[in-house]
Amino acid sequence: MDYGIPLTLDLPFDEAVERVRSALAEQGFGILTEIDVRATLRAKLGEEIEEYVILGACNPALAHRALEVDRRIGLLLPCNVVVRAAGGRTVVEVMDPQLMVRITDQPALEAVADEAASRLRAALDTLAG
Predict the structure, then answer these.
(1) pLDDT tens digits for range 76-112
(2) Do 8 and 88 touch, CB atoms closer than 8 A?
(3) How many whole angstroms separate alpha carbon 78 and alpha carbon 66?
(4) Contact 31/55 with Cβ under 8 angstroms?
(5) DSSP state of 97
(6) Torsion 108-75-33-92 (CA) sign
(7) DSSP secondary structure letter of residue 78
(8) CA–CA gap between residue 32 and residue 10 (Å, rounded)
């Protein structure tokens, strides 16, 4: 099962992270959390990986609509956006919101998933353009 929507950018990592933040903001997503996975693995395990950040993005209106359908949906909200270095380029990946519908089999979530997917794809399109 493919669960992500990827985009590869010819941008330095730090610039890509800032552009991702801006593109998400334009689509109504705020960044609630940021996890620097590389720094965490280095500090906690002494392991080294490529630059890798998880941005916890939230569109409050969409989250509220989904929670009104199913209070457990918080487990599946498409909140994490991964930005990672890959071979001199930067990869941005978002969770496919349609997973909420497929996993829960709740047709009432389709409209929320459609709008979330549309907004996330618009953010990715902004980055690609």
Answers:
(1) 887 899 999 999 999 999 999 999 899 998 999 999 9
(2) no
(3) 11
(4) yes
(5) T
(6) negative
(7) -
(8) 26
